[in-house]
Design a protein that fits this description.
Elements (H helix, E strand, L loop, with lengths): L17 E5 L4 H12 L4 E3 L11 H11 L3 E4 L7 H6 L1 H21 L4 E5 L28 H21 L3 E6 L1 E3 L12 H15 L3 E5 L5 E6 H14 L6 E3 L4 E3 H12 L4 E5 L14 H7 L7 H15 L1
Parallel strand pairs: 1-2, 1-3, 3-4, 4-5, 5-9, 6-8, 7-11
Antiparallel strand pairs: 8-10
Helix pairs in contact: 1-7, 2-4, 4-5, 6-8, 6-10, 8-10
């Protein structure tokens, strides 16, 4: 059974709105598009990279000319796990910076009604006190393996705040924690930790393998948000929030990687050995967001139980393989 959550939404807000969702064919984007359909948005434009290369200003200008949006929800990004970040620091920096900066600039030129920008938890300093408060965003350098990506995304917050100050541009910036759910990226070369672990455990069970190998020591912690919850938060923020101050979007739940591996092994019925490769990096030592601002300003509280969300994700992966 797919998790279905009831959320209040102002359908009137979406009447006659034309919305661009960059990255709308991707993991999170597909859920945002579904939610936009649910709340009654009739004109949704999802640009495809083969038609609009958003790192090129001409393509961005053409996208705006073709779709004539009132609202842009900017989700497009070059992303990946620790390995992908280590192998592509230049590409992750350039592509994310250029896509966002140009989408914002042309939106300003077109007198866009609202720009919704998705940031990243990777923008926070490496040793941010837990839970992460939005005010801590500039108090240090991000964890080294994903710093180029995190800094590129954080630069878009500076741009939105500068444009708000100089031009009155209505741009909002959301900082989601690590996402998971059905439809996630399970490619071992670029996936994040939950899909990577699910694939390892499910594949090991199929092959009757005696062990799986996991990067790091297991001591690092993460917070995970079910993708449907994040999509609802984006819709609620688009409807209700108009400040340039960043807002954390999370589940306010911290779990160590060691605990996560144990839970996924249990849910996938993997009973073999867990081998930890401590020569590989753990990434940021701890991650968990303070979500007070989201609750107070957006009316958002994550609803999905973590165990139930993992079961849904595992079932989806099994059904595809």
């Amino acid at each position: 059974m797919t998790l279905q959550l009831a959320w209040a939404s102002s359908r009137e807000f979406w009447n006659n709105k034309r919305v661009i969702v960059t990255g709308g064919a991707g993991f999170l984007g597909s859920y945002v598009v579904k939610q936009l359909n649910h709340v009654g948005c009739k004109e949704i434009f999802v640009p495809r990279s083969r038609e609009y290369d958003l790192t090129q200003i001409k393509a961005v200008s053409q996208l705006y000319a073709d779709s004539k949006p009132n609202i842009v929800i900017h989700l497009a990004a070059k992303v990946g796990g620790i390995g992908a970040n280590r192998e592509n620091p230049g590409k992750f920096f350039y592509d994310n910076l250029m896509m966002g900066a140009q989408m914002i600039e042309v939106g300003r030129q077109m007198n866009l009604e609202k720009f919704v920008c998705l940031g990243t938890v990777c923008a926070y300093p490496k040793f941010t006190p837990v839970p992460f408060l939005e005010d801590e965003l500039w108090n240090g350098y991000p964890e080294e393996t994903n710093a180029p990506y995190g800094i590129a995304k954080k630069a878009l917050l500076v741009q939105l705040q500068a444009y708000h100050q100089q031009y009155g541009f209505n741009g909002i910036y959301l900082l989601p924690t690590n996402l998971y759910g059905p439809g996630d990226n399970f490619d071992p070369a670029s996936s994040h930790v939950i899909p990577a672990l699910i694939k390892k455990c499910v594949d090991a069970v199929k092959a009757n393998a005696p062990f799986i190998e996991v990067w790091g020591t297991g001591s690092a912690s993460r917070e995970f948000l079910y993708v449907t919850d994040c999509a609802h938060a984006i819709i609620q923020a688009t409807e209700n929030y108009n400040s340039s101050e960043p807002v954390n979007i999370g589940a306010h739940r911290e779990v160590t990687i060691r605990e996560l591996v144990k839970l996924i092994a249990e849910l996938t019925n993997f009973k073999g050995e867990i081998r930890w490769d401590s020569s590989k990096p753990d990434g940021q030592p701890r991650r968990s967001l303070d979500t007070t601002r989201a609750q107070e300003l957006l009316g958002f509280v994550a609803k999905t139980d973590f165990r139930e969300g993992l079961i849904e994700t595992i079932n989806w992966y099994v059904s595809q393989n």
